[in-house]
Amino acid sequence: xxxxxxxSFAVLVLASVAVxxxxxxxxxxxxxxxxxKEAIREKAHFIAGLLNHGSFESYNALRVGxxxxxxxxxxxVTLYDSYAGADITVDRGDRTEFIRAAAHGNxxxxxxxxxxxxxxxxxxxxxxxGRVLRLSRTLNxxxxxxxxxxxxxxxxxxxxxxxxxxxxxxxxxxxVKPLADADFERTDEMPYEEIVPFMQKINAxxxxxxxxxxxxxxxxxxxxxxISNMREGMVMVNAKGNVMTVNQSALDIFGIPKKKxxxxxxxxxxxxxxxxxxxxxxxxxxxxxEIAVPQIIKNTPSGERSYNAILSPVKRxxxxxxxxxxxxxxxxxxxxxxxxxxxxxNVSHELKTPLTSVSAMSEMxxxxxxxxxxxAVFADRISRQINRLALVIDDIIRLSEFDEGKAARDFTxxxxxxxxxxxxxxxxxxAKEKNVSIxxxxxxxxxxxxxxxxxxxxxxxxxxxxxxxxxxxxxTLYIREDGERCILxxxxxxIGIPPEHQPRVxxxxxxxxxxxxxxxxxxxxxxxxxxxxxxxxxxxxxLESAENxxxxxxxxxxxx
Amino acid sequence: xxxxxxxxxxxxxxxxxxMSALAERSISLAARALIxxxxxLAEEVIRIEEEVNLKEREVEALCLKLLLQQQPVAKxxxxxxxxxxxxxxxxxxxxxxxxxxxxVIAMDGGVSAGQSDYIPQMGAAVIKMxxxxxxxxxxxxxxxxxxxxxxxxxxxxxxxSVKNDLIELIRADKANGGQAIDLxxxxxxxxxxxxxxxxxxxxxxxxxTGKRKGKKGK
Lengths: 560, 218
Fold this sequence. Notes:
The complex is a heterodimer of chains A (about 550) and B (about 220).
Chain A: H1 2-53, E1 68-72, E2 78-81, H2 96-104, E3 106-112, E4 119-126, E5 132-138, H3 142-180, H4 196-229, E6 233-237, E7 243-246, H5 248-253, H6 274-284, E8 291-300, E9 303-316, E10 319-329, H7 331-366, H8 375-403, E11 412-415, H9 416-434, E12 437-442, E13 446-449, H10 451-467, E14 474-482, E15 485-492, H11 517-520, H12 526-536, E16 540-546, E17 550-558
Parallel strand pairs in A: 12-14
Antiparallel strand pairs in A: 1-2, 1-5, 3-4, 4-5, 6-7, 6-10, 8-9, 9-10, 11-13, 14-15, 15-17, 16-17
Chain B: H1 4-36, H2 39-70, H3 74-107, H4 118-139, H5 142-172, H6 177-209
Helix pairs in contact in B: 1-2, 1-3, 1-4, 2-3, 3-6, 4-5, 4-6, 5-6
């Protein structure tokens, strides 16, 4: 900016100096020429006076400075010329000044003289004897004036230009300063009102930009938070299969301690499973819109875990530009699936076994293969098998009610101690059969629960206590309260449960010893139902057992 | 911009992991084939073994090319020489998986005389060793590599248990002898795979730390 202003200034200064120089030059030239002319005239008259009186020694004495003196006869013949190089043979009778002087006594003219190459002033005076005296002198021209003025002119011009430089730089600074210091939010402080609309516009745009940046930042942060907090592992790869981003979950899944171990490297560094890599290549080749790789198994310190990988290609402008890979933990899902499969297999087995014998026995009877005397025995066996079938089906229905959350919710207030007493009474015969004694300890506790379910719970626990007991063993039922809770424990002196089976006895159809089930009866669903009933009442169940010493099951129920 | 050499080193890492994935797959298939007596799976293992051999030659060629053309020093030299050693062990692992599969194919059709429960455990243990030794390579984790070396004792212990089980099998009925010996061979192959995994882990530890430290007492 300064340079531009200075340039304009300089042009202005130089132009005005030039114009002034010319104007003054012309003026000076004019004045000095007039002056010179006057001097020549005076001189001419003086010399003429001398000549008229004849009082001078020689013509040479007339020579004064660079004034040329010419004496011309009335006929125009040059009589004398002080200029050495002059051609005296030239007839000067036709010159304007001569003609005028001859006629009027004096005459003058200005001519560009060929002899001098500049304007020459001629002044002629007629002498008393008719001769004409002519004085001539080259006049100062513009060149001479300028060459006289030049040093001065140069000095002045330089001085002005320098001054202009400093002035303009100061000026520029003063103009620019408010612009540079401008606070775009305070238009009232701006001294140039022409700028204010710009400031307002810039201000508005700046606010808009800030808003947009803020929005973008927010969005990026949100996406970042989602990616880093999601449970699924996520990896983004470029078209070459190199990792661009990977979230924390993916690093955790594959036990990679630092991101930089895998970023910019092939995704193989995260998971090198051959099947998975084949799918990655297919996905990057763009042959699929989505591929699922089932079952990537990874050993972790907490055991084996299964993952599903889902790969989706990323397309940019219709060209494959990489892929996004998700790793989903399906361990629980697989476990649940396996359990369901096992359950279904167990259910079909439990239902089929009695049915097969019923079908076989009834066929034998129908074909007359059973002697009349044995019919009653066969019928009894059939009815026993059918009872067993009914029991299993009943238990399964009960369990499915719990699964669907349809179990009875009609809670009533009753004394669990009383109930236990009644049930023990009912087991008397069975206990005597096995030579097992049953005792009830504790004190009456009122609880708010579903009496039918609690009855079943007690029934199952006491039944197990007797069934898995030994000769002369005992079953002890202990009921007490602990604050807002009712604690119910059943201990027996039976065969116990080996430690490796303890975590699984509450599973459906799980049996510690499959070969004993025939002998003891039961469906393998009892403890599973007990657990569901306890949980249905907001209770907890715990098991303590030592092989060949006995088992103690303790249930904590909420009183209300 | 990546240097050409760095690019080649990255490519070398990729190829090694590819080869390792094949070897790991062949062990897990061989173990499954042995447990389920599945000749189909066993044949798949033999097919993969050929792929492993091909891969070994490819990686070896790249290693030699890098050694000759780039004249690597320090860490790069350690990496390349380790890779060169690791692939030998991976190739042997592939061979042994194929040998186990060969036994499965030979046993095909016969009535199973029983099994040792420790054989599946051995299979799982050596798969874990191989896969963790390669994980240690990816993670540049010398500690994990050392853990793999220590774990070899578990595999050796399992081998003894398998041996005892098989002795019992023969004692129960002398007719089981043939199968028991086949199974013992398979178990020995698993045990050898464990040793190769140890070697790999040692080379991984060397490439990370620069120190060559074998298993105590070996």
